């Protein structure tokens, strides 16, 4: 991926992913007590650790995505996080109400799709329009 348009598309993809996580992180911060209660209701272990960790992953991860800093390791972390939130937060197999179950199925697979986007970002890197791209040597492939 050496065409200039590739880095522009990668930037758009990073921003599209970042918006979701920045929004989620800010909403968790603003409604932190409610978020902690939600985690308790889902039976998430170690909520005292999980709540601040999830908030940080979403808010800081979103910012790092926008700026394109350390994208490859960040993409792996975000992919794992997104799959974990799918399993813990959208556990459709435990829902008996058909309408709610359908909604949870959609959200579960949405998260899996987002994780796939992060895996692609892991492969492509941040692109030239990023901190990673600015720091890369200019002789070879700049992803």
Automatic annotation (TrEMBL):
Similarity comment text for this entry? Belongs to the DoxX family.
Topology versus the membrane, per the UniProt entry? Multi-pass membrane protein
- Its gene is yphA_2
Q: Which UniProt keywords apply?
A: Cell membrane, Membrane, Transmembrane, Transmembrane helix
Question: Does the keyword field hold Secreted?
Answer: no
Spell out the PANTHER family in the cross-references.
INNER MEMBRANE PROTEIN YPHA-RELATED, OXIDOREDUCTASE CATD-RELATED
Report the domain of life of the source organism: Bacteria
Question: A Pfam family in this protein?
Answer: DoxX
Q: What is this protein called?
A: Inner membrane protein YphA
Location comes to: Cell membrane
This protein's record includes keyword Membrane: yes
Matching entries from InterPro entries are given as:
DoxX, DoxX-like_oxidoreductase
Give the transmembrane ranges.
7-26, 46-67, 74-92, 112-131
